[in-house]
Structure formats: structure tokens, C-alpha cells
Amino acid sequence: MVTRSIESAQRKVEARNFDIRKQLLEYDDVSNDQRKTIYQLRNELLDSTDVSERIADLREGVISDLFRQHVPADSVEEQWDIDGLTRVLALELQLQLPLREWLDKEPDLGDEALLERIVERAGEAYRAKVPAGAEASFHQYERYVMLQILDSHWREHLAALDHLRQGIHLRGYAQKNPKQEYKREAFELFGMLLGVGQAGSHAHADRGADQVRGVDRGAGRGAGPGECQLPARRPGHERFCRRSGR
């Protein structure tokens, strides 16, 4: 009798532990899928020597998002907030563009053509900040920035997932499936991670371009003869300077 009771209790405990491990595995599968995506992106960055095209794609994405906040798709010109767009481009991307003047001179200029012109001018302004002879060093700096931004936001994302998992069981009281809710919110958080990482990578690279140019917005002093032209405030820049002989 006692033996059967012990065996029955043991089976119940083992079944409960199995269910707990199964649920943990299902939660881990969500982060593992996201981890594969991040590691694939990170390996691509590590294997690349020039990430200029990726930076250009990020820049176009950031500008497109800002543009559509002020010029909604399928809208008429009377609904466009051109003054607001001009201000945000100057504030966020340091682009001083005569958008109102363009529209006054070209009444037939559509929103897609306007967006394409802004992206083109932004690319020209970015490339103009890198002086001749510093391209190789700056390409390494771009790659370094993207890796740092990716790693930083990935760590924050993992912490957010852990915090989400700790309280997700409470969704059961609202007649919701906790595992489905976790997958949905984890996906939304992952989308935010990629979006923030894109904007951050371009912003840091743009500031680096200004500093390479010798127009640091805070200091306003260029690099002297023989000095490293890359920003020296971030760890690892000295390595890039030694490689390029600067």
C-alpha cells in the first residue's frame, strides 16, 4: 500500500516536472528562432569589409519612416506637413533641404519623387562627410558601430523577454493562452529591436562621419596632422587607426 502510494506520488511529480520542462522549451524556442536571425546578421557583418550598402539601406528606411509620418501614403498635398518634415530632417539627420521651394517650383512633384530626392540628397551629404583617403578606415568604423548597436540592443531584448516570461502566466486569468500571448509580444519586441537598431546604426555612423570630417558637433575641432581621424571616445577605435596607419 505504502509502495503504491509512493509510486503514484512520484509519477505525478515527474509528470508535473515534464510539463514544466516542456513549457520552458516552448518559450525558449521563441528566443532561439530570434537568436538565429540575429546571429546570421552578426556573422554577415563580421564577414563583410564594406557595409556601405547596408548603411544606405538603413538610411533609406529611416528617411522613409520619417517621411511617411508627415506625408501619408495615398494622401493629397494639402494633407502634407512639409514644414514639420523639414524640421525633423534637420533635427534627426542634419539635412537642410528646401522642400517647400522644391514643391513651389515643381507643382507636379509627387510624394514618391520627393522621397526619392530626399534619400538621394541624404546619401550625397553622408558621402561628402568622408574625406578622400579615409574611406577604408570609415568602412571599418561603420561595421564596428553596427556590431556594437546590434549587440547592445540584443542584450536589452533578452532582458525584456525574460521580464515578459515572468508575468505572462497572468494572462490566463483573462482567458488568454499565455504561450500564444508570449509569442505575439516577443515578435512585436523583436520588430522593435530591429527598427531601433537600424535607426541607431545610421545615427551613430552619421555622427562618426562628421567627426572623421573634423566637424564634431560638440567639439568643432578637426584632427591635426598625424592624429587619428576616427572618433576616439569609443573603445576599439585605436585598433582601426593602427590598421590604417593614422
Structure overview:
There is one protein chain. The protein has 246 residues and is mainly α. The protein has helices at residues 2-47, 52-70, 82-93, 99-105, 111-128, 135-167, 178-213, 237-244. α2 (52-70) crosses α7 and α6 runs antiparallel to α7 (178-213). It is elongated, with a radius of gyration of 25 Å.
The largest sheet is:
none
Q: From the coordinates shown, what is the CATH architecture? A: Orthogonal Bundle
Number of domains: 1
Rg, nearest Å = 25 Å
Mean pLDDT equals 77
CATH topology: Helical scaffold and wing domains of SecA
Helix content: over 70%
- Level-1 CATH class name: Mainly Alpha
N- and C-termini, Cα separation: 83 Å
Shape: elongated
Order of helices and strands: HHHHHHHH
Which percent range describes the beta-strand content?
A: under 5%
Counting DSSP E segments of at least 2 residues, the number of strands comes to 0
Q: Spans with pLDDT under 50 lasting ≥5 residues?
A: 215-246
Decide which structural class fits the backbone: mainly alpha
Query: CATH superfamily, called what?
Result: Helical scaffold and wing domains of SecA
Summarize the structure.
This protein is 73% helix and 0% strand. The chain is mainly α and 246 residues long. The radius of gyration is 25 Å and the shape is elongated.
